[in-house]
Structure to design on (628 residues):
């Protein structure tokens, strides 16, 4: 191959340097995975060319039989994986092989522990494709020519700080990846070893995976396919073993772990399609990027169309991996057509219901395994009630929460279990949202509920306030925040209790006015509380105002939030309150009134607008006490 331009040297993106260092120096129990990744990428390249050729047949030219080829050269110590697929341009080579062109890499590296065994598993979790070549190779050469282009590029790297690029001549389109094996990886130069790996991981690929055909003298006599070439999802479920399903998942999801569960379905009727959907055990590395590629590949009549078909799965189920193969869509289907197409809507609805059904069955049959799922993906599933009104109740049944029924944040309860335990006269589902489990558990607003033995859900994730703003009822039971103004225990308060409340309010009227005067416009109003039994005071939010947690959520997102004035509730039965109202000195009364307000604000918000002023006031009052 003649060189037509001087080689250029480029530095790797920082994250790639770290990743390659980890690849090279970590200990892997399953090094053979490199071949699965590279053959899978080569197959994808062939699939993409086949799709593009539907609208431009010239891309195939006189080379219409697509393939992936794997060969070993024992003398040179190399393995070559070749395809005649879509190929890459110079810019694509730099993007695909010089950077990790996805968000979330910082999260990936923040999770590295330095423990080689643990970190090697993390790599599988994040799916690194091409870079897995450096598990077995001390240097890699890539020669590629994009379909429809006359220019070819060679990329070379030793997996250290940089890589070289140069223009070359290459007779045909496609990509050749040449692995210069490490001394401890020469076992992969054996063709039988390579064939067994391909059969194990890539037998289902519809693109032929070929290896050299040998004559009686072991000389190469052409090429022969070593995979069955039948797409796994087109076979009958009864013919597919669990191991085959698991290996197929690892191939399409680029995951080292087995899936948590899967579902393989053929749908017939107004729309005909096949779906093979998987729920992973571990979260994909870009789970929290809602704009990330979705994990659903779209095929039409077994022809690959696209690998991030967002129209086929709602965003709150973006952790699902798998594929859907339609018999009804046209082969030249575009993303624009997918946006508004009754067939894709039917496929989306069907796949959504299937995933929710799988999860419901898992929750019913294996609570421990479902808890494993919830710990990994629960926060994402909480996006569902707002996004999917049609399936809101089903999604709500899958939600799990900490509650006052349990003594630990690890124990989670379902809404069905909560309703089962409700006293006969209880008609609402009570909950509290706070910054942490501890803040929710210890909030003074829970005191009356503990006294009456009423369970309260303890919500402490950032998404929870947003969730509860959309999830207003479940099985005809409305949700009620215990820190809202309109707290109503309904028939849980008997007539005698209500009579006592009225008497308490009337007896404290004069003192309420005194508190209102002392606090001025720092609060919306002051009133007697019926939700406290052990604390002197609390603050609650007016029904028409933004809740504390919603305000924090918006502030964290950079949104300007209007100032909220709280309702200040006082417990007249508390000894501290009784001592304060006995003070004749209005100045000291005012100081103590502000201290009570600040304490209540700390319990609810976790912070104060002016903490220094609170400290100065406390110091002054403590000094007064020591001098008394």
């Amino acid at each position: 191959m003649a060189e037509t331009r001087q080689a250029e040297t480029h530095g790797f993106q920082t994250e790639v340097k770290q990743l390659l260092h980890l690849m090279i120096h970590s200990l892997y129990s399953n090094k053979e995975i490199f071949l699965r990744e590279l053959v899978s990428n080569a197959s994808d390249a062939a699939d993409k060319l086949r799709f593009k050729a539907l609208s431009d047949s010239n891309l195939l030219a006189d080379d219409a039989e697509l393939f992936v080829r794997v060969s070993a050269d024992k003398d040179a110590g190399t393995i070559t994986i070749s395809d005649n697929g879509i190929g890459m341009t110079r810019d694509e080579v730099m993007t695909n092989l010089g950077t990790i062109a996805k968000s979330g890499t910082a999260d990936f590296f923040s999770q590295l522990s330095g423990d080689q065994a643990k970190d090697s598993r993390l790599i599988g979790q994040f799916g690194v494709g091409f870079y897995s070549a450096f598990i077995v190779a001390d240097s890699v050469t890539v020669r590629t020519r994009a379909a429809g282009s006359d220019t070819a590029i060679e990329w070379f790297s030793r997996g250290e700080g940089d890589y070289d690029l140069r223009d070359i001549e290459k007779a045909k389109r496609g990509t050749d990846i040449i692995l210069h094996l490490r001394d401890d990886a020469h076992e992969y130069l054996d063709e039988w070893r390579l064939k067994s790996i391909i059969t194990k991981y890539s037998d289902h690929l519809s693109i032929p995976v070929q290896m050299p055909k040998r004559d009686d003298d072991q000389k190469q006599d052409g090429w022969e396919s070593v995979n069955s070439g039948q797409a796994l999802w087109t076979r009958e479920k009864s013919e597919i073993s669990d191991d085959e399903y698991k290996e197929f998942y690892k191939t399409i999801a680029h995951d080292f772990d087995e899936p948590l569960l899967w579902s393989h379905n053929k749908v017939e009727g107004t729309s005909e399609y096949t779906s093979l959907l998987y729920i992973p055990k571990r979260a994909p590395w870009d789970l929290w990027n809602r704009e990330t590629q979705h994990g659903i590949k779209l095929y039409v009549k077994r022809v690959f169309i696209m690998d991030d078909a967002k129209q086929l799965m709602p965003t709150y189920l973006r952790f699902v991996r798998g594929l859907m193969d339609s018999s009804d869509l046209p082969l030249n289907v575009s993303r624009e057509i997918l946006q508004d197409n009754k067939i894709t809507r039917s496929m989306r609805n069907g796949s959504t219901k299937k995933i929710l059904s799988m999860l419901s069955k898992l929750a019913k049959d294996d609570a421990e395994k479902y808890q494993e799922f919830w710990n990994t993906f629960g926060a994402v599933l909480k996006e569902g009630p707002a996004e999917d009104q049609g399936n809101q109740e089903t999604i709500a049944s899958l939600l799990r929460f900490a509650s006052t029924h349990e003594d630990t944040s690890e124990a989670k309860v379902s809404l069905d279990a909560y309703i089962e335990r409700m006293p006969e006269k209880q008609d609402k589902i009570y909950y509290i949202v706070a910054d942490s489990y501890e803040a929710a558990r210890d909030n003074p607003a829970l005191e009356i509920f503990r006294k009456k033995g009423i369970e309260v859900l303890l919500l402490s994730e950032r998404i929870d306030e947003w969730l509860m703003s959309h999830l207003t009822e479940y099985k005809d039971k409305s949700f009620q925040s215990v820190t809202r103004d309109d707290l109503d225990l309904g028939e849980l308060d008997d007539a005698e209790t209500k009579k006592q409340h009225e008497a308490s309010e009337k007896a404290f009227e004069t003192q309420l006015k005194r508190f209102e005067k002392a606090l001025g416009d720092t609060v919306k109003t002051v009133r007697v509380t019926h939700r406290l039994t052990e604390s002197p005071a609390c603050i609650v939010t007016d029904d028409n105002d933004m809740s504390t947690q919603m305000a924090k959520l918006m502030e964290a997102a950079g949104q300007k939030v209007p100032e909220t004035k709280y309702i200040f509730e006082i417990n007249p039965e508390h000894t501290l309150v009784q001592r304060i109202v006995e003070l004749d000195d209005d100045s000291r009364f005012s100081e103590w009134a502000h201290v009570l307000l600040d304490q209540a604000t700390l319990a609810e918000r976790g912070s104060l607008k002016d903490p220094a002023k609170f400290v100065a006031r406390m110091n002054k009052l403590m000094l007064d006490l020591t001098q008394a």
